[in-house]
UniProtKB/TrEMBL annotation, chain A:
Gene3D superfamilies in alphabetical order: 3.30.450.70
Annotated protein name in UniProt: Trafficking protein particle complex subunit 2-like protein
Transmembrane segments: none
GO BP of this protein: endoplasmic reticulum to Golgi vesicle-mediated transport
Similarity annotation: Belongs to the TRAPP small subunits family. Sedlin subfamily.
Compartments, as annotated in UniProt: Cytoplasm, Perinuclear region
PANTHER family: TRAFFICKING PROTEIN PARTICLE COMPLEX SUBUNIT 2
Origin: domain of life: Eukaryota
Gene Ontology CC entries for this record: perinuclear region of cytoplasm
Length: 113, 1162
């Protein structure tokens, strides 16, 4: 159940966000890095300025995806998400049904495999 | 000798025991001062503190050729001597030194130093001996041919003198320098060798374990030199190299030496971080027998040791985590089968002993597992990772469930569920809820289980099969009769309806949601069943709260209801309550007395939802907080029985009770399914309908836009029966009036309509008329129906438009029954009808307004003495009429008068808003009477109804002062000697006034002079078109003798301003009264409408003349000057003055000269 993993990772995301606020670190850095690893997966986090959270779960045996790759994946995801939000017909909060967003996610998944 | 020596070794060679006493202070003082170590390969230089162990030199201890051991490597050789006697030196010491040097050379060791120790006692004893320097010099010349610094003298090292201190410190520096040089050289060589070895790793037969040992040696040395960072680098390099090999192996590129690591893991002793070096494991690695875990743990333990030396213990935990993941991955990659694999985050923190104990028995393991889980949860809570804590709790719950302890599991699950619900995580929510269902089933908590089942059955995240299963659980329970266990009969299970169905819409029929007492009102409830299978409900009911109708309390209308009678329920979001928006509505309150607006405002309708405390409130979705979904008892209910709800949208129709007037509010909704009841505790938004009771009403309305007087018109009687039921024999009594009789019609029938305007019946009306009353018998009509019928009435047009009449009503009241008004050119007649209704003792007074379709005007036309009467009939209605039989009669039937019709047509059409003119000539013999009373009559009928009966129209009028008194002629002639009139040249205007009749007018004023009666006339030249300029007087007063054919001529000069055929200026004549003798009687505008306009026009023209006079001609101002009491002039009646030259034209030629004359006349 990835959902559990992702859900739990929010703990770490929140921790990191509040930590960032305290330290007044580079707030433009949206990438949170490795949130926490489990036996089977590595969980990476990313939070937008409006506190929308993205989480990528990677098989921990997958060593081809280094930090930089994950970072660029998040950036791509964020860009696509922004496009979705810019759609005037999209109501924030609704499930995203954008095909463009879907294909971006799919290509990332294929690429990761 | 221990291989892991802590300090570099310095081999010493001495021949006197005195030197050994120096070792202690040497070892102590050597590391006192740092040395800068310049490194090869561009590594940054660092300051290091050197330490050393001094070991007695033995030749057999020197490393053999090919021995790579660095730890035991002699970095420096020191030859101590205290020989100060050159003889002794020559005899024995030199030889010994040579032997030592030879041994060193044999082993390729170039790092040596000779220390010559001088002592005072020796000096004292042998004072005659050679100076000590000679010995040092000798040694230098013998051995240090190029490196003179390899021989150092130590001056009384055990003394406190400054000399000895100085020599001691310089010796230490020398020693450090040489030691460092040796390190640099030897380590550099070692590293080169090691690199070479590493390059060979692709060759067959290369062994990682061997290489491991070599590089570890280097690490040991660095550690020995306190260079832990460098030591750690060595281990990290080894780690990376090994990891790469394993990955390559996983990718199919296997190396032979990896075979040993692939053996199955039989045992693993856990990590031991206490000892700096785990020799057992190291031996295993050295022998090439280590397993993967052995190697990993050894590597890790070394790394940890170094990290702790580096005082970076936090990295230990980070690396430990990495290690654990790595190990798991690598074990998988190497396809190592692991028999006992119990990794948990927490294990690393636990001491080996504890783990052993835990693995010793199931009970102990359980105990430890629980302990650790709780510890982890507490830790997570403490650091604020609540979600993680709940996840551990959930896994703990799974553990309990597997152990068969659902009681303990439940709370953990509910706790997790709460967080998933509040954050709306769909899939974890479903999964957890499923676990809860299982848990509750085992606990036999039927209420909660059913509630959870209902939620699951409606959960679209589950497969159809699963949903059906949970739905079936509910159905099975519902159909079970309450047998066994002594359950009470009324043991019904109340569940929340929100999981079962979703309300969509409620529709009222009729849509107004406002019905009269005992009328049919239906409610259609549209709901979406969330169940996966059709569910047959025994009953769906809605309880109703009834409030008695209060007059004036209908201020707050059903705001939630749309005008089309529907109430739309808001789509319940999964996280309802938290995200609900403000729902605002406007409130207008009218005061009960006069229905005026007393207050207006805005109210938030869901304030109770928004303002409540969120933490203490629990959502309905959570089954543990079973809401008080008890069905409340209500006196009245909406019921629908045996309803089958199909999955998806359904529609249920209720029939609403409406026995009493008042407001009915829907409160709860309850679906009954056997023992299970689904209850919606509050219907929101508020659904209300109203039942009213109504008084009967009668209204009479015209069928067309305007009722026309003089023609039969249809009016519509509408009776709203209200609560009154019309019984047989009930009749309407209409009081008759002469001016508006009710016409009987044989085809008069009444229509009975229901409240929803459906035609129910049609029945004939019987109308009976007596002299005073018309009685209309009404057909039997039930309450709250509408009775409609048409009645034809005729309103007579009064012959004199201004005549009013008052009549005595049947009930004895004197009242003006009809009233004539004038409005926008139309004559209106208000007719009041008094109706006695059977339901009331009072009469109903209904007012009807009739429009007279015509306006009429007459005028008197003259031609010399001949008189003509013109009647203009204007149709002001929107109907076209046929007009016949237009006759004009004289009322007094004077034999001398005769009216000859000049009209050729007897029938004519008068279109709407058009006029018809008719003309009669008035002929008379003898003297014409002063006034003539005439009556115009015609018959008319609507033009589009050819067979309609003609209705009469009459018009009375009186003509006065009919006969012509004066004739006026105006003539323009060119000036003397001119042939034609020219512009700019004066012409002559001759006005001749002629008295035609001797007969005098009654109100004519005469003056008697010389026995001759004469009257004074005022004449005026009127040139409306500004064609003429009057030179001199334009008006004047003449005295006319009252005699037939008396003529008066006036000459004036006028000048034409334009060329062409110009109208002769008209001459107006007035009666002239030089002084104001009596107040002027203004013409009565009320009584004489046709004269009115004439006199008004007259005055207006006078005024305009006055204003113009000053401009037009300066000399004409006599009458125009406002001076003293104004002379009064009075107009003649129409027809009294005849202008013989009206409309006559005069030809005016343009001026002969080309001078352009410009005259501005305004």
């Amino acid at each position: 159940m990835f959902h559990y993993t992702v859900h739990t990772s929010l703990d770490v995301v929140e921790e990191k966000i509040s930590g960032v606020g305290k330290a007044l670190a580079d707030q433009r850095e949206l990438y949170l890095g490795l949130l926490y690893p489990t036996e089977d997966y590595k969980v990476y986090g990313y939070v937008t300025n409006s506190k929308v959270k993205f989480v990528i779960v990677v098989d921990s045996s997958n060593t081809s995806l280094r930090d930089n790759e994950i970072r660029s994946m998040f950036r791509k995801l964020h860009n696509s998400f922004t496009d979705v939000m810019c759609n005037p017909f999209y109501n924030p909060g609704d499930p995203i049904q954008s095909k463009a967003f879907d294909s971006i996610v799919s290509t990332m998944m294929v690429q990761a495999c | 000798m221990e291989p892991h020596e802590e300090k570099p070794i310095i081999y010493t060679m001495e021949n006197k025991p005195i030197v050994t006493s120096l070792y202690g202070s040497l070892t102590q003082q050597l590391p006192r001062e740092p040395m800068e170590w310049r490194r090869t390969y561009g590594r940054a230089p660092k300051m290091i503190y050197l330490e050393a162990n001094f070991v007695q030199f033995k030749e057999e201890l020197l490393p053999k050729e090919g021995n790579k051991a660095l730890l035991t490597f002699p970095f420096l050789h020191v030859y101590w001597t205290d020989c100060c006697d050159s003889e002794v030196y020559k005899a024995s010491v030199k030889e010994d030194m040579q032997r030592w040097q030879a041994a060193l050379r044999l082993h390729g060791s170039v790092d040596w130093i000779i220390a010559v120790v001088e002592s005072d006692n020796k000096k004292k004893n042998k004072t005659n001996l050679l100076p000590r320097t000679s010995i040092v010099d000798k040694i230098r010349s013998d051995f240090c041919n190029k490196q003179s610094d390899r021989c150092v003298s130590l001056c009384e090292p055990l003394k406190e003198s400054s000399r000895s201190q100085e020599s001691w410190s310089s010796f230490l520096t020398k020693l450090r320098t040489l030691l460092l040089m040796s390190f640099t050289r030897n380590l550099g060589r070692f590293e080169d060798d090691m690199r070479t070895l590493r390059e060979k790793r692709t060759e067959p037969g290369w062994s990682f374990c061997d290489y491991f040992m070599v590089q570890e040696e280097l690490a040991f040395v660095f550690e020995m030199l306190q260079q832990f960072e460098d030591a750690l680098v060595q281990y990290d390099e080894l780690d990376a190299l090994f990891t790469q090999y394993v990955l390559n192996f996983g990718a199919g590129d296997g190396a032979n030496w990896l075979g040993s690591f692939c053996q199955p893991v039989r045992s693993w002793n856990g990590l031991l971080l206490r000892r700096p070096i785990d020799m057992e494991k190291r031996d295993l690695i050295q022998r090439g027998e280590a397993s993967l875990l052995d190697l990993r743990s050894y590597l890790f333990s070394r790394q940890c040791t170094l990290l702790i030396f580096l005082q970076r213990p936090w990295e230990v935990t980070a690396r430990a985590l990495e290690l654990l993941h790595n190990c798991v991955q690598e074990l998988r990659l190497l396809e190592v089968c692991v028999r006992e694999r119990e990794f948990r985050h927490v294990c690393e923190a636990c001491v080996n002993k504890k783990l052993k104990e835990a693995l010793s028995s199931v009970e102990a393991f359980e105990k430890h597992y629980l302990e650790l889980s709780h510890a982890a949860m507490e830790m997570y809570r403490a650091i604020g990772r609540l979600r993680s804590a709940r996840l551990v709790g959930k896994s703990l719950a799974e553990f309990y469930m597997r152990k068969g302890d659902p009681q303990s599991a439940e709370n953990f699950l509910l706790d997790s569920l709460k967080s998933y619900v509040s954050e709306s995580w769909g899939l974890p929510l479903t999964h957890t809820r499923k676990q809860i269902a299982e848990c509750q089933k085992r606990l036999q908590k039927m209420d909660e289980y059913l509630q959870t089942s209902a939620l699951l059955a409606s959960d679209t995240n589950l497969s159809d099969d699963e949903r059906r299963h949970f739905c079936q659980e509910i159905l099975t329970f519902a159909t079970q009769t309450a047998e066994g266990k002594g359950q009470q009969k009324d043991a019904r299970v109340a569940l929340s309806m929100s999981s079962f169905t979703r309300l969509q819409e409620l529709r009222f029929r009729p849509s107004s949601a406002l019905v009269h007492v005992s009328a049919a009102l239906q409610l259609e409830l549209r709901l979406c069943s969330l169940m996966p299978v059709p569910v047959t409900l025994e009953q769906i009911s809605a309880s109703i709260h009834f409030t008695q109708e209060q007059p004036g309390s209908t201020a707050q209308k059903r705001a939630a209801q749309n005008p089309d009678g529907t109430v739309t329920f808001p789509a319940a979001s999964p996280a309802s309550g938290s995200a609900s928006a403000l729902e605002l509505c406007e409130i207008l309150e009218h005061s009960s007395s006069d229905n005026a607006l007393s207050s207006a405002g805005v109210a938030c309708r869901n304030m109770h939802l928004l303002m409540r405390r969120h933490d203490s409130s629990t959502s309905l979705d959570t089954p543990n907080t079973a809401p008080a979904v008890a069905m409340e008892d209500a006196a009245q209910m909406l019921r629908a029985s045996d309803v089958t709800l199909l999955p998806g949208n359904n529609s249920i129709v209720f029939t609403a009770p409406s026995q009493k007037p008042g407001t009915y509010t829907l409160r709860q909704l309850c679906a009954t399914l056997g023992r299970v009841q689904f209850i919606l505790p509050h219907l929101y938004p508020v659904v209300q309908y109203e039942v009213y009771s109504q008084e009967p009403q009668l209204s009479i309305q015209p069928l067309t836009e305007h009722l026309l007087a003089g023609l039969p018109q249809q009016v519509k009687f509408t009776i709203l029966t209200g609560h009154y039921s019309v019984k047989k024999g009930d009749a309407l009594q209409l009081s008759n009036t002469d001016s508006m009789p009710v016409l009987h019609s044989s085809t008069c029938s009444a229509r009975i309509l229901s409240s929803s305007a459906e035609l129910l019946a049609e029945s004939a009306l019987s109308i009976q008329s007596s002299e005073k009353v018309t009685s209309i018998s009404l057909p039997v009509t039930p309450p709250y129906h509408t009775l409609e019928f048409l009645l034809e009435v005729l309103c007579h047009i009064p012959s004199c438009p201004a005549r009013m009449e008052s009549e005595r009503l049947t009930n004895g009241q004197i009242s003006r029954r009809s009233r004539t008004r004038f409005n926008s050119g139309m004559t209106l007649i208000d007719q009041k009808v008094s109706v006695d209704c059977p339901w009331s003792i009072y009469s109903t007074l209904v007012s009807l307004t009739f429009h007279v379709p015509f306006t009429i005007k007459h005028s008197l036309l003259s031609a010399g003495r001949r008189k003509f009467i013109q009647v203009c009939l204007r149709n002001v209605s929107d109907t076209n009429f046929r007009l016949t039989n237009q006759t004009l009669t004289e009322n007094q039937h004077s034999p001398s008068l005769e009216l000859c019709s000049l009209n050729t047509k007897t029938h004519s059409l008068v279109f709407r808003q058009q006029c018809v003119f008719s003309v009669w000539e008035l002929r008379w013999s003898g003297v014409l009477p002063v006034s003539v009373h005439c009556e115009f009559s015609a018959a008319f009928a609507p033009a589009d109804a050819p067979d309609a009966a003609l209705k009469p129209y009459r018009y009375d009028f009186t003509l006065e002062r009919v006969s012509t008194l004066y004739s006026v002629r105006a003539e323009i002639r060119p000036a003397e000697g001119e042939q034609q009139c020219c512009t700019g040249s004066l012409c002559r205007l001759e006005v001749s006034l002629t008295r035609l009749s001797e007969a005098s007018d009654s109100d004519e004023e005469y003056s008697e002079t010389d026995g001759l009666r004469s009257s004074r006339l005022l004449y005026e030249v009127m040139d409306n078109s500004s064609n003429w300029a009057v030179c001199g007087k334009s008006s004047g007063v003449v005295s006319m003798p009252v005699a037939a054919m008396a003529t008066h001529k006036v000459h004036m000069e006028v000048m034409p301003l334009f060329a062409g055929h110009l109208l002769v200026p008209s001459i107006r004549v007035f009666k002239y009264q030089p002084r104001l003798t009596s107040p002027v009687i203004q013409p009565d505008t009320d009584s004489c409408l046709e004269n009115d306009s004439l006199s008004l026009e007259d005055q207006a023209e006078t005024a305009s003349l006055r204003s113009r006079g000053s401009v037009q001609s300066l000399g004409s101002g006599e009458s125009a000057q406002p001076r003293g009491p104004m002379p009064k002039r009075q107009a003649f009646g129409p027809g009294q003055v005849f202008s013989g030259t009206q409309g006559q034209q005069v030809l005016v030629l343009p001026a002969a000269d080309l001078h352009l004359m410009e005259v501005n006349v305004t």
